[in-house]
Amino acid sequence: MKILLLEDDKNLHESIKAFLEMEEFDVDSAYNSDDVYDLTYINSYDLYIFDVNVPGDNGFKILKSLKNADDKTPTIYITALSDISSVAEGLSSGADDYIKKPFDPEELVIRIKSRYMHCDTLSYKNLTYNPATKELLQDGTTVGLSDVLKNIFHELIVQKDKIVPSELLFDLLEQPNPNALRVNLFKLKTKLGLDIKNIRGIGYMLEEL
User: Fold this and answer.
1) 3-state secondary structure of 193
2) What angle do CA 166, 101, 15 make, to 5 degrees?
3) Which residue range forms the structural domain that includes residue 156?
């Protein structure tokens, strides 16, 4: 997997890059918006990892510009901005995930492997799902989901029969709180016929019954 890492703090940048390369990812470095525009012009990437507050255009504006140029590369934001409006702006700009600093580099690797490295189509009851394109079919017909429901479903199905921590699912919500999560899980269960088990105090698990 080829990754473009945008982080202007050089010590943190080198630390993240070294950890990713230990996991055998191919990582290119960008420290500002100009670096990103130059590198994406000449290279194709499997994943972007972007900080937000960087020299030049911020990470939100960078991704919007890339998306406007029909760049569909999955993107993870890593940022100290943790307020709800920033999270919402990050996801609305086209990002797939949002990790709040400080974070354990191992968490970043886990998310990359669980969300972006599944090539095979997954099946569950009458559902067929392509994790790479996030295309969901029910009885052969495309199913439309909101971005929030789509991201929650993705986490549950790629880790089917495993517990997905509530904290991870909270990060996918526009208003992260237990009640909002329960409402969205109920919507998924009703719309798709999912068997979602609540592991009290820990998280949720999509069961193959």
Assistant:
1) coil
2) 120
3) 122-206
Question: pLDDT per residue over 94-118, tens digit each?
Answer: 777 888 888 888 888 887 877 776 5
From 143, 188, 135, select the one nearest 164 (Cα to Cα): 188
Cis check for the bond before 165: say yes or no (omega within 30 of 0): no
Task: Spell out the SS3 assignment of 139-151.
Answer: CCEECCCCHHHHH
Each residue's pLDDT tens digit, 13-27: 999 999 999 988 999
Query: Which residues, 6+ apart, have CB-to-CB distance to 90 below 8 Å?
Result: 52, 59, 60, 77, 79, 81, 98
| Domain final residue, candidates 116, 144, 165 | 116
Q: Are residues 68 and 46 in the same domain?
A: yes
Same domain for 153 and 108, yes or no, is: no
Distance CA 78, CA 174 (A): 17
In a shared domain, residues 158 and 98: no
Whether the Cβ atoms of residue 78 and residue 99 lie closer than 8 Å to each other: yes
Tell me how far apart the alpha carbons of residues 160 and 164 are, in angstroms, rounded to a whole number.
9
Q: Is 20 helix (H, G, I), strand (E, B) or coil?
A: helix
